[in-house]
Amino acid sequence: MTTSISNIDIAIVISYFITVLLIGFYIARQTKTGEDLFLGGRSFGWGIIGLSLFASNISSSTIIGLSGAAYTTGIATSVYEWMSGIPLIIAALIFVPLYLRSRITTIPEFLEQRYDRRSQLFFSFITIFSTIMIETAGALYAGTLVLQAFFPDLPMGPTALGLAVVAAVYTASGGLKAVVYTDAIQAVILIIGCSILTYILMEQVDFDFARVVAAAPAEHFSVVRPMDDESLPWLGLLVGVPFLGFWYWSTNQYIVQRVLGGKDIRHARWGVIFAGFLKIIPLFVMVIPGAIALTLYPDIEKGDQVFPFLVTNVLPVGLVGLVLAGLISAIMSSVDSALNSSSTLVVIDFIKPNKPDITNDEIVKYGRITTFVLMIIAAAWAPQIQNFTGLWDYLQQMFSIIVPPIVVIFLVGVFFKRGNGDGAFWTLVIGTAIGIGLFILGEMGMWSLHFTVNVGFMILVSTVIFVAISLMTPAPDAAKVERLTYRKGLIMDGMEGYPWYQDYRLYMVILVALILYILKMLW
Predict the structure, then answer these.
(1) Which domains does the chain have, with CATH numbers?
(2) Rounded Cα–Cα distance for residues 113 and 116 (Å)
């Protein structure tokens, strides 16, 4: 596979790194309080929120993986991208106003208000561990592999550390505002670069996509797969993907933090819906190139080689550097978001409650120190992943263990007002324990459900646990629960007095129609 990179392209990549660092240092001069560091001073407009949500979600492994899957097994896994609009709509309708009215800095803080501190600490610890050991280390590992595809002589450890240091420097300096503004730039670079690649590939097949479909294996362009499909069985599409999406977009500090930094409920809602539209783009600029490559270059050996091959063999000099900068952007946006969210959780959920007299300067200091400590941990773990490839594949399925109990205490808890602290805490503990047990049984060959189907099963089990324990223990305070659960008028909270064309519900309907049309097209 040819991977020659010109000096012009390398110069473009270096210029990108310098620009990102300069932005971080510039914003650092405006970062004076904990709210500045962790929530950008709650100053983000809808466009910045939407672009940052998109960029922080798209990792380098996502780009490589989507193109590779479209080349090897089909487009089924692309549903995680374009169907994200559904959980984002749920977030906009219900959770955005609940979170912003609560004036929380971390999602676990919401659990403390809704239930008790036990659930807050349990959830916060799980989130920190999974974000650093899976999200951050995984992004560094996958990002290093991507760079090695272009620069084969790059060593794993130092490269991962270098990426981590750059992300940590501007994240610790400028906080969430630096993360969000660099994310916005990264999103634009990513979309432009991948769009140009898609256009050139379509030009090579004379814009005849029917030719691409005809050259692919049967069911390659169908998202509804048989129950024994290894990538995504149809039942998992129904009972697993929506809940995984809800967890990711509504309860994950790594993602929701930029929503918490919105100017107001109106901008936060628009930003979330805007992100839903942006999430449709990968289908056309990341998935479609992999499908076209199957027609034009049928002899590529591995799926992970598809995107690097296309970039270095299809794009002219200069554009290679742009797309490579986009890939690095994806790495950086994942790492910076994970570091900032995890340091926020450590300081707000663990340090601040034990230091009630802590000053703003101390909060900023602890936040920056925590960012660098977590960076070192993630960078140290990232190279080890190559020694445990099988284990790493299994760790990806660990989300099917941690997600169901979390989804239940948020999604069921927002409607089931009788749900209490005991029900929430023991749902987290028992649900997680059962999930670990089923995971072990699966590794022993005694539990064969696909992990997406397993999510649906464990959602049911966790719901039973939550409702049963809540009903057997004292009811929560009704007045407190009322402001933290669904109520009449919540859907229009913060939207009063705006003209119809600024009503987020209009764009929500358009987004749903677009998703349903794509689903019908790819059925």
Answers:
(1) 7-28+41-386 (1.20.1730.10)
(2) 6
